[in-house]
Amino acid sequence: MSLEYFHAVDTGRARSNNEDSIAVDEANALAVLADGMGGYNAGEVASSMATSFIKSELGRWLAEAAHGASDLEVRRAMDICVDNANRAIFNAANANPQYAGMGTTLVVAVFREGQLRLGHVGDSRAYRWRGGQLAQITRDHSLLQEQIDAGLITPEQAAFSANKNLVTRAVGVEDTVLLETHLHEVQPGDVYMMCSDGLSDMLDDSMMSRLLQMHDSLQEAGRALIDAANDAGGKDNIALILVRVAKGQAGAARPWWKFGR
């Protein structure tokens, strides 16, 4: 696949420090995004540790083994790298009182052979923009999402909830973490968007879709999304990665069988 990238981190309008982090390895079609949490600068430490560790370790594995690897092996490599990053953050938090309780959300994407293997922890998100339609392809690990799933509140009510930032799963908070992963078929012209809640809390799906529709340039679309989030209040740090699949790039070849006797 031929892929085009845009990525940026913005402090936003309300905060002086930045706890979001991104890492992109274009050679190995790997993208990682994290939104840290914790007092002092601990959130910044956690997110930076997660993105740099996973880019280094998973990127090295992809460079050496991914060409002949099955999707199951890629998924296993993602699990191992995230588990190792989780333990590194957890151990650092326990060894340094200043970092106690730090953790981070995570989204990690591996593109290969017409497919996207996507993993996430927490409430940072991934979306797919295809044919003018935007779809969220991750499900938040958050108290708010659990309340929606249980029918306690509606998605419309959730937009005004005071529990927006309470995640139920994060990297580095406990000695183990479960990475939720899914496999997606990739089509030519698809745009995949990974973002922290500094973007998704400020802009609804229709606004994000409209901004993606308005700009042919991925760079212009990315800057427009960040500017719009800031114009809407910029209440948190903003991390954004856009990945576009070149038109004319077909997905993985599929075998065909003739049915009959």
Order of helices and strands: EEEHHEEEEEHHEEHHHE
User: Count of helical segments?
Assistant: 7
Q: What do the pLDDT scores average to?
A: 91
Give the DSSP E fraction (strand runs of 2 or more residues): 25-35%
Low-confidence stretches: 250-261
**What's the total number of strands?**
11
Which structural class is indicated by helix and strand composition?
Answer: alpha+beta
Count of domain modules: 1
Q: What CATH first level would be assigned? A: Alpha Beta
CATH topology annotation: Phosphatase 2c, domain 1
Radius of gyration: 18 Å
Indicate the multimeric state. Answer: single chain
Structure description:
By secondary structure, the protein is of the alpha+beta class. The chain has a single domain (3-245), classed as PPM-type phosphatase domain (Phosphatase 2c, domain 1, 4-Layer Sandwich), CATH 3.60.40. 34% of the residues lie in helices and 26% in strands. The protein contains 7 helices and 11 strands. The strands form 2 sheets. Strands 2, 3, 4, 5, 6 and 9 form a 6-stranded antiparallel β-sheet that branches. It has a 5-stranded antiparallel β-sheet with strand order 1-11-10-7-8. The protein is globular. The N and C termini lie far apart (37 Å). Residues 250-261 have low confidence and may be disordered.
Give a quick rundown of the structure.
By secondary structure, this protein is an alpha+beta fold.
